[in-house]
# Entry
Amino acid sequence: MEKVLFLAHTQDDGTLPGIALEALAAAVEMTAKLPGSSLVVGLVGKDVSQAAEAIGSSDCAATAALIGQSGATMVVAPATSRFSRSLPGATQRLGGRIETHVSGLEVVDGVIRVQRWYYRQRMVATQTRVQRPWVLVIDGGVFAPWAGAAAAATVENVAVSLDAAVVRTTVIGVQSGLRNRPTASSTSRMPQI
Amino acid sequence: MNGGFHIVVCGSIVPDPLQTLAPVDGPTGPALKNEMMLPSVLDPWAGHSLYEAANLAKNIPGSKVWLVSLGPKAKLQQLMMSIAQKVTFELVVLDGPAGGFTDSFEVAAALAGAIDKIPGLDRSRLLLFGGCASASRDAGVTMQMVGEQLGITEQFLGVDELKVQDNGSFRILERIEGGQYQVSECSGAPAVLGWATGNLPEPPNNPQIGMMNMRTVMPALQKAVPAPVGVGGVSYLGVELPSQRRETRIVKDMSADDIAAEIVAWIKG
# Structure
């Protein structure tokens, strides 16, 4: 029996990014196919914890706290830059395992099977794991965004204790891309051995 | 910046991107057909991080660069013939598989263990560099896991620029959604930086640097520590090449307006 945690973070305007709704659809679908499993939603954002907003190390602490507090065995999250940065560390902290760039998800005979690409999308693997918690970071465009009806939810705040001295990074803001940046195609050709 | 940084770069080999890759079943899990025979290159993202590390060390006196590589010793030795001529570093070798089907958790544990044992490494000045993802597993998780095991909480992924201020703090540009950058300021080392392309070109070969590096590279290869990393807890149910799909329709004598109208209709769905 699995306890599935759908994990998402809010954007600056307090809404969920579109890709989060796709991951939610994956979490809902997976929970429905796993008999006896339950779905919990974990959100990281200003309303949950001011310190958890847009700072890498606090994102890691916040997600680790949510996964730990929920007792989730499976975690489904969208592949945003924030989660790509913070979820691997949180998973390591909890002794779990993580699969990123998940491009397919199915449940066969109660076993969760994940599909992801290797060698820069040159071969595709179907795989599973027994270790828990198992974090699945879902790529965009794999699932149709969840479009269910809104309903009232019971919200529980999970406190994240962050020592101010430990957090040494401040996010200044966002800027547009650099001009004349080398691209992978022009620079990735390394000397052959 | 007093004393400079101690920069540890994690980087290994990947098959040359121009090679044809085919999966086969190996004794311990999936592998590549003729994997040991395939020409290899330094993992591109890790290569960028190595060049950024060398540039940073050159500009900040007292800094030093280590390259920690997990891969087959013989192939790493071949790689060093070219990479060691480009930038100055001290090599730390973990002799083990470098394929994409190894478990990132085990790889991170091996790398963290090796970094922990580097003699003379000052953890308070440590900058842990690596690629934002490998060109083999392409998971983008290993650097964060290594950082977590070493107790480094300040982590940055998809970094294209690192500017060190006079007080030792640094300003970082990280790639985020929409082709934009997140701008952060970190008060100083230790930190983990998973690099994207950065801003530097590939340095030219310099035989003098090669000669200098080889004094430490060959002994490092000789005392390579075995790192028996494997697939970990992953059960691979199948690995295959994607089937080719080509839905082509050849139409003759169609006007440009009709073609445009069909494309617009397709875009609109």
